[in-house]
Design goal:
It contains 21 helices and no strands. By secondary structure, the chain is mostly helical.
Amino acid sequence: MFSSESVQQVQTVLLLLLLFVAGFAIVAQWLKVAYPIVLIVAGLLVSLLPHAPRIPLDPELVFLVLLPPLLYASASAASWRELRHNGLNIGMLAFGLVAFTVWGVAEFCDRFIVALDWKAGFVLGAVVAATDAIAATSIARSIGLPRRIVDILEGESLLNDATALLALEFGLRLLNRGDTPGVGEAVLRLLWLTGAGAVIGLAVGWVFAKGHALIEDGPVEIVLSLVVPYAAYLAGEGANASGVIAVVACGLYMGRKSATIYSARVRMQVRGVWEAMEFILNGLVFVLIGLQLPLVLALVRGTYGWATLIRYGLIFSAVLIVLRLVWTFPAAWFSHLVRKKLLRRGETRGMPWRPVFVVGWTGMRGVIALAASISLPQTIAGGKPFAVRSLIIFLAFSVILVTLVLQGLTLPPLIRWLGLAKVKGIDEEEREARRIVLRSAIEYLEGDRQAGDEEMEHVYDDLLHRYRHRLAAVGGGVDDEHFRALDRSTYARLRAVATGAIQAERRTLIGLRDKERIGDEALRTLEHELDLQESRYQLGPE
């Protein structure tokens, strides 16, 4: 059992961390810098203070507690249409780039880092192969980077965790047994990890979606939504498949089903809880990375000189950045050629180099790389100490700092210099969706009015006037304050009519998504507005 003193210490540390996250997130807004960068730098500075708390990062905390909900939140917010459309680009990064990174790092270490041979370099390459797109996409969205680049970065980060962890599995086998799987065995293992993981994730999502459809209780559905990612992850790991892929598949499925399984009220509650939870977990992750500095330095103190360590860290980070850029351009050219020649997608223009360069520059590493390095065993085959484990952890930590801070801070001016930043506003796809759903509501009201009575004529006229005005303006909310003066019976009939119009809009909106005329992001934007409108009509006279 835990003592009351230890529980109080944990509570104090957690409270301080949460205040730290909230405070420096506000500072990030003042500085107009992405909050992950500010949090990791602040964590570094705090870790250097005397008597600062030492909070070691437990790999199990990352993989079992933090990773599932963060992956699930990202996957459920992703657009299936965009992932499928950019699937070739994403696959070249999530699979091809991971393999290229592992091989490139192994070759570099074998030739230029005295302490690391090819096998240890292979392990190091697997540790740092997975990118963390949280910082990159937060910056990209804040300055209006084209949506396709954001989709590719998010898709890559959803899948490359699994492939990097598979490469790490092969690397540890190489260290312990002296051999690596053959091509056939590696392909079969990869197929099982991804295929079985995806099937398990979809099955878990299907079960929970059925459960949500039978429940109309906000708190209960919120609790179930928090259970889903952990259930998918544990089920995937229990089948010796990829828990990461299981969570991603489950998140994609539930994100698509959320438009139909939740009521408007519950959906707003679930969204609010998940937005807060995602921010808290992301904030804690980046703060914890920064606080690891003294612990990482303690591992290498006395073993390597500081000049050697700094040189290794900077050169290795530069090599990793160059490897990504070297892979990105031919991979993008190959994807462009396949889409043009084989898939016949009508791409007549040449491959644009500026978006490709931005994708190549946003290879930021995060907590997965650090947790993977810390999870490395202390001993290898025959009980021999894994002497270079501390150096691998230091290099992984160096890459995280260099890529997050250097690339994170240079990405906004780079995007502006390349002319890729755009002014925020309603894009044409969302604008067209608004036109279509508003027309469907008007058609519903005009048809329903024919079956109504004369007493409700003014209600239909008011609603139709508002919808036509919104259609003309393509936007704007519904101000229904004067409806509140209606008596209970009339307001109930108004609410039924207005809700019917909103449901007509919702059906049309989901139909546009299912026909792939709009993406999930546009659907969620308009869906949130419909949820707000529908909830307003629930606040009528009692």
